[in-house]
Design a protein that fits this description.
The complex is a heterodimer.
Chain A: H1 2-12, H2 20-61, H3 78-84, H4 91-124, H5 130-138, H6 145-155, H7 162-169, H8 184-211, H9 214-222, H10 227-255, H11 259-265, H12 276-286, H13 290-319
Helix pairs in contact in A: 2-13, 3-13, 4-8, 4-10, 4-12, 6-11, 8-10, 8-11, 10-13, 12-13
Chain B: H1 2-18, H2 20-32, E1 54-60, H3 65-80, E2 84-90, H4 93-105, E3 112-116, H5 117-125, H6 133-138, H7 148-153, E4 155-156, E5 159-160, E6 163-164, E7 166-175, H8 176-181, H9 193-205, H10 217-230, H11 248-262, H12 274-280, E8 286-290, H13 293-298, E9 305-308, E10 319-322, E11 324-328, H14 336-351, H15 353-357, E12 362-363, H16 366-369, H17 372-375, H18 378-382, E13 390-391, H19 399-414, H20 420-442
Parallel strand pairs in B: 1-2, 1-3, 10-13
Antiparallel strand pairs in B: 3-11, 4-5, 6-11, 7-8, 7-9, 7-10, 7-12
The chains are: A mainly alpha, B alpha+beta.
Chain lengths: 320, 444
C-alpha cells in the first residue's frame, strides 16, 4: 500500500503536505509490528502444533527414546545409521517399506493426475445429468479409508470375492490373488486408490477449468485451432498452477499411503506391501521406539521435501 | 504435585467426614503416597475396602459381545460396593496398547487395565503396571486355584503382575452339514492325524476343500503356532535369547500345513477371514479358530457346527492360547485407596468369572471352571481341556514384535513365496536381531 501511495505522490509533482512525513514514520513504526500481530494467531498455532513438534521430533530422533523407560540415552545419529546399516534389525523392514511406498507412488501418481483431468474435462461439458455425474464421481471420496478398505478386501478376495466371480462368469481367469500376491496386490491398491480419490482431484481440475477465460477459447477457435490444439495451447497452460497443486498434493498423499495397505493386503505377501507410514506407526506406537520412528519420519520428510522442491522447480522452469 | 496435594486434602476432608473407620486407611495413605513403587502393597490385598469412596477407571479392549457382559458385571460390582465406583473405557486392542503408555506417562491412564498375558512382561518391564503378589497371597490364591499354565503366565522375574481372568485358546470347529454330505459322522470329529487326513480325503471326494489354510496370523498363523508345539518345537530357546522356530520340528509342522494347499485340501491365497466365511457358508469343513467365534456362530442358526479341542497332528497335544489378565497401573501420583479398591474389584470379578464365561472364554479360576454351571456352557466347556497343554508365549518384554516376525515368516511360506525352510530361516535371522535389540533396550 505504502508503495502505491508513494508512486502516486511522486507523479502528482505536489509537495507532500506538512506533517505527513512524521505521520508516515509513525505508521511505519506501527507497520513493523502490525504484520506479525496479524500473523500471530496462526503463528502461535503453527509454532505450538507444527514447528515445536517437528523440532522435538528431530531431538527425539537423536536418542534411544521410549515414552516410559527412564533412561533415554543420547545416541547421536545412531537411529539414522540403523536405517543404512545392513546388520541392524530394522534395515530390511525399512527399505522394503520404502520400496513399497515408492512402488505405490510411482504407479498411482500418474493415474491420479491424468484420469481426474479427463474426468474434469468430461464433467465440464454441458450434458443432461451433469450434476449427477459430478456427485457420483466424487462420492467415493467421502467414504473413510476403513469403509473402502473392508469393502474392497471382501470384493477382491481370491476365493470368495465378487470380482473373481464376475471375471469367471465372462470366461476370464477366476483365481487371481488380488490381495495376497504381487503384482496383483499393487494393481488392487492403486486401483482402489484411484477409484477412491479421483473425484477429489477432478473437482480441483474442474474449478481450474472454470477459471480459464472463455475468450481464450473463442480467440483460439477464430485462429483456426482444433479441439486438440485448444486443449494443448489453452487448457493445459491455463491449468498449470492447478496441476502443480494436484501433482504436489497427490505425491504427498500417495507417499503417505497406510490405511489401504493395512486393510486390503495387510502387507501380504510377507511384508512386500507394508508401507513407510505403517512402518513408522509400528515402530513408534507398537514397539514404543519413538527414537527410531522419529528418525524414519525425519528421513522420509526430507525425501518428500526433495521431491516437492524438484516438482516446483520443474513447473516454474516451464512457466518461464 | 499440586494436584497430588489437592487430592490428598480432599481425601482428608472426606475421611474426617466418614469418621473412625476411615482413619485407619488414611494413616496408610499419608505414609506411603510419596513413593509410587510402594503402591503395590496398599490395602489388604483385595479382601475388602473400607476407605472413602474412590472412582476407578478401567480400560479394556472388549469391543465385541464380551464388552456388554463385562459392563454388566461392572455394574453389578458397583451396586454391591457403595464406596467403589468403577467406570469402563473400551478401545480396540490394537489402539489400546498404543494408547496406554502415553496415557499413563501423562497421568491420564486407567487405574485397572485388562491385558493379554503376552503383554504383561513388556508393560511390567516398562514400569506401567505394579506387582500384585500381595493380592495373590492375601486372597490365598495359588497355582492350585488356576490352571498352572495360566497362573505362571502372570509372572515376570518371579513377581506377579497379572491376575488371570480367563483363557482363550484356539479350537477346532467343524461344519456338521459338510461332514455329513461327505459321508462322515458329524458327531465324531477327527482327533488324530490319521483320522484328520482320512476325513480330508473323504471331503475332497465330495468336492470340498476341507481345511482352508489362511496365511495370516488370524487364524493360519495361530494354527501353525499350535502345530509347531504339537511337533515338539518351540518359538524360542529357554532363555528367550535365540529364536528356534526354524528347527526341524517347526519346518516339518509348517510343511504339513502348507502341503494342505498343495494337496488341494485348501485353496491357495486364502484371504483374511475367508477361511471362516467359507466355513460358515459350507465351502470349508474344518477351521482352527479362536474360542471367541462360539458366540458369533451361535448367532448363525443356519450353520450346523461343533467345536472340539484341536486334533493331535504332531507327537503331542498343544494349542495356541492367550489369557486376559487384570493389572493395576502405576500412577504418577499414587493413591493407596484407589489401589486397594482396585484389588477388591479384581478379586470380586475373578470370583464372578462364570458370567464372563458366557462371553465365550474359559474362566481361569478352577472353582468356577469345575462348577456345574460352567459345565452347562457346552461349547465353551468343550475347550476347557486345552487349558492343560495350552502353549502361551514366554514372559519376555518386547516379544510381541518378534512373534509377529514369526507370523510373517509363515505368511511367506503359506503364500508360496518361499519354501517353509527358507521362510522360517529368514524369519529366525530377523527375530534374533530383534531379540538382541530388546535385550539392549530392556537390559536383560
Amino acid at each position: 500500500m505504502a508503495d502505491v501511495i508513494e508512486v502516486g505522490a511522486a507523479r502528482d509533482d505536489a509537495p507532500p503536505p506538512p506533517g505527513r512525513t512524521r505521520r508516515r514514520s509513525v505508521t511505519e513504526r506501527g507497520n513493523r509490528a502490525t504484520p506479525y500481530l496479524f500473523l500471530a494467531p496462526y503463528l502461535v498455532l503453527f509454532g505450538a502444533f507444527g514447528l515445536a513438534p517437528i523440532l522435538f521430533g528431530v531431538w527425539i530422533s537423536l536418542h534411544q527414546w521410549d515414552l516410559q523407560l527412564p533412561n533415554r540415552p543420547f545416541i547421536g545419529l545412531g537411529n539414522y545409521r540403523d536405517l543404512f546399516s545392513s546388520d541392524s534389525a530394522i534395515y530390511g523392514d525399512w527399505w522394503s517399506s520404502v520400496r513399497a511406498t515408492g512402488t505405490f507412488t510411482l504407479l498411482s501418481v500418474p493415474l491420479l493426475v491424468v484420469i481426474p483431468l479427463g474426468l474434469a474435462l468430461l464433467l465440464n461439458e454441458k450434458f443432461p445429468g451433469r450434476t449427477f455425474f459430478r456427485a457420483a464421481f466424487f462420492a467415493p471420496y467421502v467414504l473413510g479409508v476403513a469403509v473402502i478398505g473392508l469393502l474392497w478386501r471382501f470384493l477382491l478376495d481370491a476365493n470368495l470375492g465378487l470380482v473373481n466371480l464376475l471375471l469367471g462368469a465372462v470366461g476370464l481367469p477366476s483365481d487371481t490373488p488380488w490381495v495376497t500376491d504381487v503384482p496383483w496386490a499393487w494393481v488392487s491398491l492403486v486401483g482402489v486408490t484411484v477409484w477412491w480419490t479421483s473425484g477429489f482431484n477432478a473437482v480441483i481440475y474442474l474449478a481450474g477449468l472454470q477459471d480459464i477465460a472463455p475468450e481464450l477459447y473463442e480467440a483460439a477457435q477464430v485462429d483456426g485451432a482444433g479441439r486438440w490444439d485448444r486443449f494443448r495451447h489453452v487448457t493445459i497452460p491455463g491449468l498449470r498452477p492447478v496441476m502443480l497443486f494436484v501433482l504436489t498434493t497427490t505425491i504427498l498423499a500417495s507417499a503417505n499411503v497406510f490405511g489401504q495397505a493395512l486393510l486390503i493386503t495387510q502387507g501380504a505377501p510377507g511384508e512386500q506391501t507394508r508401507t513407510v507410514v505403517w512402518r513408522i506407526v509400528d515402530e513408534g506406537l507398537r514397539d514404543y521406539d519413538a527414537g527410531r520412528a522419529a528418525a524414519m519420519s525425519v528421513f522420509f520428510a526430507l525425501m518428500l521435501a526433495v521431491v516437492s522442491v524438484v516438482n516446483f522447480r520443474l513447473f516454474r522452469y516451464r512457466e518461464d | 504435585m499440586i494436584q497430588n496435594e489437592m487430592s490428598r486434602r480432599r481425601l482428608l476432608g472426606l475421611g474426617v467426614g466418614l469418621g473412625a473407620v476411615a482413619s485407619l486407611t488414611l494413616a496408610g495413605c499419608g505414609g506411603g503416597s510419596s513413593s509410587p513403587d510402594r503402591a503395590g502393597s496398599a490395602g489388604n490385598g483385595g479382601k475388602d475396602y473400607t476407605g472413602p469412596k474412590v472412582d476407578l477407571k478401567l480400560w479394556n479392549g472388549f469391543t465385541g459381545g464380551d464388552g456388554d457382559i463385562f459392563k454388566a458385571l461392572v455394574q453389578q460390582f458397583n451396586s454391591e460396593h457403595q464406596n467403589i465406583a468403577v467406570s469402563v473405557v473400551t478401545y480396540e486392542w490394537a489402539d489400546y496398547y498404543s494408547k496406554l503408555p502415553g496415557a499413563v506417562s501423562s497421568g491420564n491412564g486407567p487405574d485397572i487395565a485388562v491385558m493379554h498375558m503376552d503383554q504383561l512382561a513388556t508393560f511390567a518391564a516398562r514400569g506401567t503396571i505394579s506387582e500384585l503378589d500381595d493380592v495373590a497371597k492375601n486372597l490365598e490364591l495359588s497355582e492350585g486355584d488356576f490352571a498352572p499354565t495360566v497362573w505362571k503366565g502372570g509372572l515376570y522375574h518371579e513377581k506377579r503382575y497379572g491376575i488371570p481372568l480367563d483363557m482363550h485358546p484356539l479350537g477346532f470347529y467343524y461344519n456338521k452339514a459338510v461332514m455329513q454330505k461327505a459321508g462322515l459322522d458329524p458327531n465324531k470329529p477327527p482327533t488324530t492325524r490319521d483320522e484328520y487326513t482320512a476325513a480330508l480325503t473323504e471331503l475332497k471326494k465330495s468336492g470340498v476343500q476341507g481345511f482352508w489354510v489362511s496365511p495370516f496370523q488370524f487364524t493360519g498363523g495361530m494354527t501353525f503356532y499350535s502345530l509347531l508345539h504339537q511337533w515338539g518345537g518351540k518359538l524360542f530357546d529357554d532363555e528367550v535369547a535365540k529364536a528356534t522356530f526354524n528347527s526341524d520340528p517347526a519346518v516339518e509342522a509348517c510343511t504339513w500345513l502348507v502341503d494342505m494347499i498343495k494337496q488341494g485340501h485348501s485353496p491357495a491365497n486364502v484371504g483374511q477371514d475367508a477361511d471362516y466365511l467359507a466355513f460358515k457358508s459350507g465351502k470349508n469343513a474344518f477351521t482352527w479358530n479362536g474360542i471367541w467365534q462360539i458366540n458369533d456362530l451361535k448367532k448363525s442358526p443356519n450353520v450346523q457346527w461343533g467345536v472340539a479341542p484341536l486334533p493331535q497332528i504332531g507327537s503331542q497335544q498343544a494349542a495356541w492360547a492367550n489369557s486376559h489378565n487384570f493389572t493395576i497401573v502405576k500412577q504418577r501420583a499414587a493413591n493407596e485407596n484407589k489401589v486397594s479398591g482396585a484389588k477388591v474389584f479384581i478379586n470380586w470379578l475373578s470370583q464372578h468369572s462364570l458370567d464372563w464365561a458366557k462371553g465365550g472364554q474359559v474362566p481361569a479360576r478352577k472353582t468356577v471352571r469345575e462348577s456345574g454351571e460352567f459345565k452347562a456352557l457346552t461349547e465353551v466347556n468343550a475347550l476347557a481341556p486345552e487349558l492343560e497343554y495350552a502353549a502361551f508365549p514366554p514372559a519376555t518384554p518386547g516379544l510381541g514384535e518378534v512373534v509377529l516376525t514369526f507370523y510373517n515368516a509363515f505368511n511367506e511360506a503359506a503364500l508360496n513365496k518361499k519354501s517353509p525352510k527358507q521362510a522360517l530361516d529368514d524369519g529366525v535371522a530377523k527375530a534374533n536381531k530383534q531379540l538382541e535389540d530388546n535385550r539392549k533396550k530392556y537390559g536383560n
